[in-house]
Write a structure and sequence with these properties.
Strand order of the largest sheet: 3-4-5-6-7-8-9
Radius of gyration: 18 Å
Structural class: alpha+beta
Number of helices: 8
Largest sheet: 7 strands, mixed
Length: 281
């Protein structure tokens, strides 16, 4: 619980471990017991055949909404499933109160298919600035955290994204064409060029973690949903990476970005990928 005179920084110094525990408990109670054990009635479609939601998504988000709200009274929660039910929930990101951004199961398609490439994403945002993030790949027993100005860590070890090896093709994870407009498809097609090795992305949260670890050079994404990006973008930043939209500005979790955008291991790589997306030579 935040004290009346306490800053977000002081709250995080006291309660980051409590947030991590809340994430672990939600996964242990609602996600892992259903992994590779989902019944047909526990899986639904939202906006299309590839846009899935499960009981694990819904119940884990409800638990996190309750637990995170109790840790920080006066805060709001913007969760993927809550916004699907009521799009007005997203408007909390435009206010002054602290906001928890929650994706209970990022990579639901993988989760449904029994693949361990999914994670739970939580970020704490205030006035459009991501202050801290928690990324939990429960099936892989990996937990990554970041606090703005204090670095990014995976299982207690500091992350450093580094820079791509000179002369090697850049490995870039990109949005699936099914989820892009014609204009975005044209921009992303520029990555199929000499010196770039693109591939379709999996869980966005895990792709960001790969960038922060230096295992992937960049991502190029065409959608704005804050629950997919907030936690990972802070991980990348705190590991020494950078992100840019087509306008040349960093990605804003509050929206209004020029898409597609990129996040990369270093600023030079971000500029290179963003330049290709813009059609620059």
């Amino acid at each position: 619980m935040i004290e009346e005179t306490e800053t977000i920084e002081e709250f995080l110094a006291r309660c980051s471990a409590d947030v991590e525990e809340a994430v672990r408990k939600a996964a242990a109670a609602e996600i892992l017991p259903r992994f590779r054990r989902l019944a047909a009635h526990e899986v639904d479609r939202k906006n299309g055949p590839h846009d899935l939601v499960t009981d694990a998504d819904r119940l884990a988000e409800l638990r996190l909404t309750e637990d995170l709200g109790a840790l920080l009274p006066g805060s709001a929660v913007v969760g993927e499933e809550a916004v699907h039910a009521d799009p007005a929930v997203y408007e909390a990101l435009q206010g002054d109160a602290p906001v928890w951004i929650v994706d209970p199961v990022d990579g639901t398609r993988q989760f449904v298919h029994g693949d361990d490439g999914f994670c739970t994403l939580v970020a704490l945002v205030q006035r459009g600035v991501v202050r801290a993030s928690w990324t939990y790949a429960a099936a892989r027993e990996q937990f990554a955290t970041a606090v703005r100005g204090h670095g990014a860590f995976l299982d207690g070890q500091r992350l450093s994204a580094g820079s791509p090896e000179p002369g090697r093709d850049l490995a870039v994870a990109t949005s699936h064409p099914d989820y892009t407009t014609d204009e975005q498809k044209r921009a992303l097609r520029a990555l199929w060029s000499e010196g770039i090795a693109p591939r379709p992305c999996g869980s966005a949260g895990l792709e960001y973690l790969a960038v922060a670890r230096g295992a992937l050079d960049a991502v190029a994404f065409s959608w704005e949903a804050a629950w997919d990006h907030a936690a990972g973008l802070l991980l990348v930043e705190e590991a020494g990476g950078a992100h840019l939209t087509l306008s040349g500005e960093p990605f804003r979790v509050t929206g209004g970005n020029a898409l597609p955008f990129t996040a990369a291991r270093d600023a030079a790589t971000a500029r290179r990928v963003a330049g290709l997306l813009r059609g620059a030579p």
